[in-house]
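so i finally got all the pieces together for this one. its two components total, 225 residues if u count the protein bits. some of the lines might not be protein, just check the labels. i wanna see the whole assembly predicted at once instead of chain by chain like last time, that was a mess tbh
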Amino acid sequence: GESVGLHLPTLSVQEGDNSIINCAYSNSASDYFIWYKQESGKGPQFIIDIRSNMDKRQGQRVTVLLNKTVKHLSLQIAATQPGDSAVYFCAENTWGSYIPTFGRGTSLIVHP
Amino acid sequence: ETGVTQSPTHLIKTRGQQVTLRCSSQSGHNTVSWYQQALGQGPQFIFQYYREEENGRGNFPPRFSGLQFPNYSSELNVNALELDDSALYLCASSLKGPNSEQFFGPGTRLTVL
């Protein structure tokens, strides 16, 4: 069936490095994507979103890239900090239906 | 902090029992969604309530039911608990209806023995 998945379950980086977390999706009807951050003991927290009519969107220290041709999106975190350590989920939606379908998640570990 | 609270934080039940989990949304948040998150997995949508009516449901059996109250609180009820129901249960509320950003609570960790 249709699914959202992540390539790497764990990503370890050094403080100050840039991090890239990847996500593949297979539902061609999805046109709205969200990245969430989930810290230990907390619920998912919205980071950034992107609609399918865009291929790049930037926030504070984060950039999301969307490649609709290969159904892939990525989250780039600049100058990664220890506070960025968390599990990151990509989620897909159909615009107008705010019920995201989550992928499995990638654990980001930032070493000081 | 999102302002969404859940209780209890942790809960242990035995197979066959019933459980009620509670969520308190921010004032004015008229939409609440419930998710089940198994260990190492992403959250899975259970159902959503908008203005006290069920507004959508995921692939969960009828023994999962919910209520939303006028004071913006809500509850998730699970009957006839099974071992596979062990998970983190998250609620998420929205201010501007079902098609607006969701704010998640910290979750309730349910263990079924």
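The longest strand of chain A covers residues 86-94.
The interface with chain B takes residues 4, 41-46, 89, 91, 96-105 of chain A (CB under 8 Å).
anyway lmk what u think
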